[in-house]
């Protein structure tokens, strides 16, 4: 059935670039060159990733002091934005109208 349809059909049904029976794209020399460049770049990346910069012993807690300093900086910036404490005596001080100096 597929061979019969392929031999009798005079074109690609529907859109020619999408779908199950689409027209295959021709591979140009630019496409091949770009793919080779991409694969070379990927191979170089894999080469550099496979060689670690630090040993696991060096990597363990190497940035603990820097992280502690940055955490303190963040904490101080958050507390700087926090408003001052307000006490109930400050809010209700205007109600002390019957209090005398002598008592």
Task: Please describe the topology of this protein.
Blueprint: H1 2-8, H2 29-49, H3 56-59, H4 64-81, H5 88-92
GO biological process, one term: mitochondrial translation
InterPro entries: Ribosomal_mL63 (IPR016576)
GO molecular function: structural constituent of ribosome
Task: State the share of residues found in helices, binned by percent.
Answer: 40-55%
Strand content: under 5%
Main beta-sheet strand count, sense and barrel state: none
Report the total helices. 5
What is the N-to-C order of secondary-structure elements (H for helix, E for strand)?
HHHHH
Kindly state the number of beta strands: 0
**Structural class by helix and strand composition:** mainly alpha
Low-confidence stretches: none
Shape: elongated
Radius of gyration: 37 Å
State the distance separating the first and last CA atoms: 111 Å
- Whole-number average pLDDT? 87
How would you sum up this structure, described in words?
Helix content is 53%, strand content 0%. The chain is built from five helices and no strands. It is elongated, with a radius of gyration of 37 Å. The model has no long low-confidence stretch (mean pLDDT 87). This is Ribosomal protein 63, mitochondrial. It holds the Pfam family MRP-63.
């Amino acid at each position: 059935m597929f061979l019969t349809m392929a031999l009798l059909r005079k074109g690609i049904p529907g859109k020619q670039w999408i779908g199950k029976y689409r027209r295959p794209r021709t591979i140009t020399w630019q496409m091949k060159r770009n793919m080779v460049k991409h694969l070379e770049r990927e191979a170089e990346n894999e080469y550099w990733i496979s060689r670690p910069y630090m040993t696991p012993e060096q990597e363990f807690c190497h940035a603990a002091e820097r992280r502690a300093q940055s955490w303190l900086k963040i904490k101080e910036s958050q507390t700087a934005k926090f408003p001052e404490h307000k006490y109930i005596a400050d809010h209700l001080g205007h109600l002390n109208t019957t209090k005398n100096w002598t008592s």
